Amino acid sequence: MNEQSIAILILWAVIFAYSILGSIDFGAGFWAMVYANHKSLASKIANRYLSPTWELTNTVLVFVVVAFIGFFPKAAYTLATIMFAPVTLILVLIAIRSTFMVFAYSLPRYEKMLRIISGITGLLIPALLITVLPVTEGGYVDFSGDTESLLYGKLFSSPAVYFYMLFGLTSELFLSALFLADFSREQGSEETYQVYRRSAIFLGPATLVTAIIALVATDVDASWFLDNLMKQIPFFAISLIFFVVGYTSLWWTNRAHNSLGWPRIAVLAVIAQYAFASYGYGASHLPYLVYPDVTVDTSFTTKETFYTLLVLYAIGIAILLPGFIFFWNLFLKDRTFIKGK
Amino acid sequence: MDTVTLSRAFFGTSLAFHIIFATLGIGLSLMILLFEILYQWKKDSDYAVMAKRWTKAFAILLGVAIPTGTIVGVQIALLWPGFAKIVGQVIAVPFQIEIFAFFLEALFMSIYVYAADKLSSSLRLLSLFFVMIGATASGILITSANTWMNTPAGFSMRPDGTVYDVNPWEAFFNPSFYTGASHVVITAYAAGAGVVAAVAGYKLLKRNQSAREIAYHKKGLLLSLIMTFAMGIMMWVTGHSSAINLHEHSPEKLAAAEGLFETQSHAPLAIGGFVDPVTQEVKYGIEIPWALSILTGLSPDTVVKGLNEFPPETWPPFYTHVFFNLMVGAAGWTTMISGLALAYWYFIHHKRGGKLPKWLLWSIASIGPVSMLGIEFGWIFSCSGRQPWTIYGFQRTTEAATRADFIAPMYMLFIVLYVFLSVLTVIVLRTFFRRHPLLPELEGNGGKV
Ligand code: HDD
Ligand code: HEM
Ligand code: HEM
User: Fold this and answer.
1) Domain that holds residue A214
2) How many Cβ pairs within 8 Å bridge chains A and B?
3) Residue A333 confidence (pLDDT)
4) Over the stretch A110-133, which tens digit does the pLDDT of each residue have?
5) Searching chain B, which residue's CA lies closest to the CA of residue A101?
6) pTM strictly above 0.90
7) Around Cβ A36, how many Cβ atoms within 10 Å?
8) How far apart are CA A168 and CA A166, in angstroms?
9) Closest approach of chain B CAs to the CA of A224, in angstroms?
């Protein structure tokens, strides 16, 4: 493997990690709003997950940006120019959401407002984030003239963009519902588990349908991309198998809990499903980062910086891993946490 | 405004806002650690209450520090894509390590805030220690990137902008890294201590307080005054090294800061006033003969370069003189007041007892805002004094800036956002502490958390 491939693989891994953590984080915000008045603990459990973790998730987002600039600085240049307005809007939404997260923890009277804010931003932020996919596939950027610019009219009148958003939202909600189902069971609330299980059952097929529509509806301008997708069919096939395993596991009998479903298996299988699908997607995208002008090779950083970053990644992860494990045990496994102080 | 000016205003505003919370993040984490250490050492539960209450404030401020940090981090690429392109090739290392520092801080901050009652006291200290290390490291790392912009190192550039011969560590440890990083960290500690002192001083001005509350505030005041004064002295030492560093590596910036046009030995130090580029002198200021030469080389014979040595189109703006003076003035005020207050305490209050006088408490209350202003002035001086360069000698600000559309409306939106967040932060802090008064907490029935 050459350096560029290693770099894009690491970048893919960081983005993938964020898309999983981000989906759960934003999705939990949405579910906390939807189930605000539900008789179960659904809303409370979602918020309990969010309070200690949003900060880490946010740091992973900054990680994505820094990794992008470090590995592919020239692509960062192009993307920053064309995505200026959408990304700036995302920043505003994130700022409002994060501050309310903290303020509501300090002052419970903001809790109701927080639910609404984090519920709505939990849909808007991912929807805006995912527009980067169709944009990088080409057709919405004007490369003539002395600077690249986004063709807003074309972008927002294209149905493909809305299908992408729909796909992003259904998968966000599916994954977060599964995760919260598992989290509820971990916390010992079978009733809440059932609530999230039902949501997941409803959303599972929706993710498949929207995924297929989004890919098929991709504009003709991106036909290069469709051709590439065809070559990655095996990855999508494995991905589908994982979906079937994960989805059906919601009906497997579970003696220990005296009910249906193995949410832990479902979560892991669906994460694997997304890993394979997004790997296939990413592989089809190559060698372009932004079609047709920016490729992995032309935008790669200097070799010296690349190797230094590689070493830093190894050291940083080795140092932080014990911290993450401690954190996980403290908050996500500990049942006293959910029962309140 | 053209897009470059807009981008500069936009970015300056975002940073000026972020830096308030980031600096407090560094300074307060040290103070809270000190409170916890004192508590475990002296077994005086007042210090535990102090740590607990300041942690609450810290957590609220962190709620603004993190999203605004995310904003500036992303805006480096959004507003300065030309700069980001070179950052990625040469100086990506501090940004990357900073991510790990953020993780460290975020992990242990969550652990300390959300699980404090489940931790043993040594684990609490350890978590706080990591929070402090993470925050300080963030400050040092971002300063590495900033000092590299002032004194770039570790790469070469062809005329077409191609970068080669990169040495990331040489870029990281660029010539002004040590002076810059130590100055930033020390001033952040000073500002954190100054804010704690200011709050304690302000609280002591209130009437009708129980003896218990007064004793509590006095303990906090004494500790934070000692810290402010100690860091204040260090501030002069590190500030002086920064000035020497400018003399060696950024003579234009120093010349503009002092309004010096002719290269000369026995150069004077100009305090106050403003620079008049037509007559090439500092108007309405006080000139101390020889002082600048002595300051930069410890000898009046030191030759200090003047602006006429450089082409006028790369002169920094002259208002940097004002910001430099304001920064040093802020240092003078905080060091003087904290020193004076300590002297009063030791020589008069200690012997005679009684109340601390009002004028002294008001002066103490001012050092919090003044030291925050010092931080702002220092950064504006450092960043504006680099103009017209973004990377000194390599990339002009005009080449770094974005050419995207919609900068002006987005800037408006962010101004609204920052105003909204400021107001909300003040409201939340005030409401929180009104709901959780000090006295019940001190009397050990816990208060409601
Ligand atoms: C409370 C804040 C504060 C105070 C009281 C001072 N400074 Fe400062 N100064 C900073 C906060 C600061 C800063 C915000 O930390 C800066 C901005 C950029 C940097 O690296 O540090 C800075 C930069 C800075 C620079 C420019 C470095 C550069 O641009 O490369 C110089 C020459 C000084 N300082 C010198 C001093 C002197 C002689 C002071 C008198 C005691 C002083 N500072 C007090
Ligand atoms: C362009 C300049 C800057 C960038 C890109 C930047 C970036 C960031 C980011 C992304 C965060 C949030 C991290 C998270 O997600 O947890 C953050 C927080 C923080 N930043 Fe900045 N920052 C800048 C300037 C500064 C400066 C100058 C300092 C130090 C004086 C500083 C110190 C901190 C600290 C200590 C935090 C942690 C929050 C806290 O402890 O309160 N930053 N910064
Ligand atoms: C946190 C405190 C800081 C403040 C208040 C601050 C303030 C400013 C201001 C006012 C400007 C506009 C300068 C002008 O147009 O005259 C500016 C520009 C800039 N600053 Fe800073 N700055 C800070 C720290 C940093 C740091 C830590 C970095 C980078 C690591 C940085 C990078 C830049 C860049 C890239 C520009 C734009 C290009 C330029 O004008 O040179 N700043 N900043």
Assistant:
1) 3-338
2) 217
3) 65
4) 778 888 888 898 889 998 898 888
5) B63
6) no
7) 17
8) 5
9) 27
